[in-house]
Specification:
By secondary structure, the protein is α/β, with parallel strands linked by helices. It has 2 domains: about 300 residues, HUPs (Rossmann fold, 3-Layer(aba) Sandwich); about 140 residues, no CATH class. Helices cover about 45% and strands about 15% of the residues. The strands form 5 sheets. A 5-stranded parallel β-sheet has the order 5-4-3-10-11, with helices on both faces. The chain has a 4-stranded antiparallel β-sheet with strand order 6-7-8-9. Helix 3 crosses helix 4. The relative contact order is 0.12. This is cysteine--tRNA ligase. GO terms for molecular function: ATP binding; cysteine-tRNA ligase activity; metal ion binding. Its EC number is 6.1.1.16. It comes from Aphis craccivora.
Length: about 500
Amino acid sequence: MRNFGVLSSLLSNRSFSTNKSNVLVYNCKTKTKEPLKCNKLLRWYVCGPTVYDSMHIGHASCYIKFDIIRRILENYFQFSVFQVMNITNVDDKIISKARALNTDPLHLARNYEVEFIEDIDSLNIKQPDIIARVTDFIPQVLNIIQNLFNKDLVYSAADGSLFFDTTKFKKYGKIVKVPEVIPHMFKRSNLDFALWKATKPGEPSWDSPWGAGRPGWHIECSAIASHYFGSSVDIHSGGIDLLFPHHENEEAQCCAYHNVDDWVKYWIHSGHLHVGDNIKMSKSLMNTISVKELLKSYTANQFRTLCLLSNYKNDLEFNESTMDVACGVLKKFDCFIANCYAHLNNYNSKHTPDITLIKKMNDIENDILINLADNFNTSKTLNLLIELISIFNKLLTVDFNFNCSNLEVIQALNLVFKTLDSFGINLTDSKFKSDAENISIINTTVNFRAKLRQLALQSKSDVRKQDILKLCDTLRDELAVANIIVQDSSKSSIWRHEKVTKIQVNEN
């Protein structure tokens, strides 16, 4: 049914691009949208996972949103993105869980790290160029601490741990308005944060000039990002819950270490994922859904579509209703693509191109670029694609042919196809196309059924006619069980892949 030969090459060669300087990004530090400016290489640091458990879909939504932004920057605006992500593989939570399971903390972390990589692959999230474990950067951590120590910004607590002295760093609080300084039991200020945690019995530790211990949480990202990017990072991203204190602390210690006023140019944060009644998905609330659980009931494309339907910095609601909407939107795209291929493979249009229709498509394509350049507005972009599909659906005849020229069908198909592909909707998924052998088998089956059905419709014997049509309906229903949906008209039949199921959210 779908010939992905010459036509597929035509689609893949289509390029979307515009001026880089037109891209506006919301910067949480300035609370405004600012032009995205960088040199030839855009340096992007992503706060990665603490690998003490399976990744849940709240985390996944964050990584999908940033993956979409990365793809937009690369595919539409031709930025060369170099992305680094950390893996926190030594941490209080990891140590606590390993102790409960009577296993080695680093071994536990390694197992969950492997699972994390499998999960992002299953969600079609592009892997960062570099994934860095904090335990591989102990020398870099110690170097930064020594530098800050020499600048009198570090003090030792009673247990031997080292803390960053926020009262001595006058630029602290540049990202968010921090609370009033409050006395603390063993810290000089409640805002001070650990750079080096003194060792405790049974915990992983490394030698240092100040005694055995392990890195604090905030210092690991500073050490890894500084190792690769030095004194300037273009984009630093994470969930909104990392804004304070994690990102505030990173910025403070890095500005002090590098002697710069600003370490990160653009801080971007994704909103929370909620599971009803504005309840954040969280392991502490025991309301999480793992990626593997999600993919038993929904596809990666469907969950990504949910993420595309709102701006990345907004909170996202995950429930049966919102997933129904996402599945419905993806189905619109799937049906349109199926109809376009059916038309182009089976119908030789004699229509001449309509200047008005072509102009409308060009306007929609231009509006897509404008919206994506405006802080990556994917929700408006999807609405523009739906508008385009609605225009063509009005031109669709009862026999699944478009009442317009093939040129216009190709242009519309190209725009939908390339946009979805540029967002990371996996068009190699069986929902959109299968391998050539399976397509051939399905085409043969559907075409045979269509011919048999036409014979029945032309038969003068009502008994034979009804018997044959009943057999055709049975075959159609059996194909539907295999997620192959057949649509009949008076003269022909077409098919498409479709699978929509639902997941139960456990809020207990």
